[in-house]
Hints:
By secondary structure, the protein is an alpha+beta fold. The chain contains five helices and 14 strands. The chain has a three-stranded antiparallel beta sheet with strand order 7-11-10.
Amino acid sequence: MSINQLSTPSSSIPLGQSQTHPQISSNGNPTITINTPLRPIKSESGFEFPAIWSFPPFFTLQPNPSTLNHQLELWRTLVLKWAKYERVFEVNVDSIEIPAVFENKRIKRRLLPPSMRRLFQAMSKNGEAAPDPPKQDTKYLIYWKKPEEWGDLIHTWVMDNGLNSSIMTFYEITDGDLSHTTEFYELPTSILRKALESLVKRGKAQLLEGKGEIGEGVRFL
């Protein structure tokens, strides 16, 4: 199967081409066929969903193993691009509010929670997501940047601003006055901690326990 084709159990439609829908006449017989091309759709925020997002079978995980692997690969790519654009760091697959990427209201299709779990399990195996807290399958962190990448970004920012050898709280890093223009602004604490732990392993930081009203901190080396 090519990367531009998604098969269904009974047929296959080349992605980006047209689907055909027969018109039914008053006597019940089909009369004409209307082509409905699959096109990218731009959201109100400006994110462009690919043409495959308008293909109804895309929202149902396929039984054929090779087709499923291809389908999950498409979903993984889409979720990471969407999460980065919208700055989404966490997803709850059982939430009443369905993240926009998992529901196409124009075609009345959505990815159901069991399928979302399967997707995030695949993303976790590829280091693109992680259950948070561990050992459950409802809440996931999305790594459109991996913790190590966030760690490098934070460390570079610290060095560029002459903050090396200083002690900073977690809050100052993600919500302080100096960080509001950075890409890691409002980064969830769970991802921040993993990012800082990656720096600790490389000898670039030391984690400090918080005391009283002072939250957890870190000394950059």
